[in-house]
Amino acid sequence: MIAKLILGACIALAPQAAPTGNEPVRGTESGFWKHHSVVYAQVTDVSSVRPGLAKMTLAVMATLAGWMDAAENPRLEVDLLHGVQISAVAELPKPKTRVVALVMRWGDDSYTIRSSPVVFMPNQAAILQVKSFDAPEVQEIIGHLRELRSRKATPEAKESKGE
Amino acid sequence: MSRHVRLALRWIVALLAVGHVGSAGAGITTIHGNERGVWKNNSVVYAVVSSVEPGPGARAVLLLDVRATLTGSFDPVGAESLVVPLVYGMASSVRGYPKANSRIVVVLRRLEDGRYIVPTSRVPFMPSQSAVTEVKSFEDPAVQQILTRLRELRATRPRYE
Prior knowledge:
The structure holds two protein chains of two kinds.
Chain A: H1 2-17, H2 32-35, E1 36-50, E2 53-66, E3 75-81, E4 98-106, E5 110-113, E6 127-130, H3 136-149, H4 155-161
Parallel strand pairs in A: 3-5
Antiparallel strand pairs in A: 1-2, 1-4, 2-3, 4-5, 4-6
Chain B: H1 3-27, H2 38-41, E1 42-54, E2 59-71, E3 82-87, E4 103-110, E5 116-117, E6 132-135, H3 141-155
Antiparallel strand pairs in B: 1-2, 1-4, 2-3, 4-5, 4-6
């Protein structure tokens, strides 16, 4: 009985405790865009917390999809799991580089970069280093996101958009 | 036509012209960017002008491919393209319409029926206070300047207007 209760509590708490599962992220999940945004940003700082976990500061320059307001949230501190054993993000981006990142808000003011594979990103990871906004990868991501969001006629997609 | 009638017609035309310019001038309001609730219906976006359809008078219709949002609630991937009417010239802060295939930073206003327009208002945080400005690319320093001004605005307290 106690074991069942503990197991139940673990399952209930799992999404909050571990927002970095390994299920592929598709962008069509129910309510997905209420908590996620795709942003174009410059990496201003990267620091290692422990092996495989880093804290990164992003200067957000623009929003490609989602609720994030680039001017209202100019500096984002995000957690990032990295390394092939534990994350789809193989390596950390370097400071001063430009990135496109899938950012997830959880809690009031906490942000994380998903460690799960992300289907609509060219490298299948939630963060991608790019040369500039005009890089073909950025346009590719915008194209994929438009395809996803154009399915808004379906009730699932409307729910996913938070409509 | 008698001299008196011609004189009267001239006066009517002149009065109409003055009235038109006067009302147009009075119609140009200002979006400071820190008014309370201003970003609920306004957004600043980076877009590619897919095509331009000049209309009658100082009007044009732009077909925009919005690539990114700098501020506001507009979702760039919500639609493939966006049809936006633009008023330029004396009745607007916008001096002319942008060329097709140019890249622009533009203020978009969402109307109650869901359509978008380019407001005619003066916009002090944009170059030349115009609601539309052409840029070379997203990495153009003008885009960064606009973003910096927007960040400053969003960090300050809203105006009670």
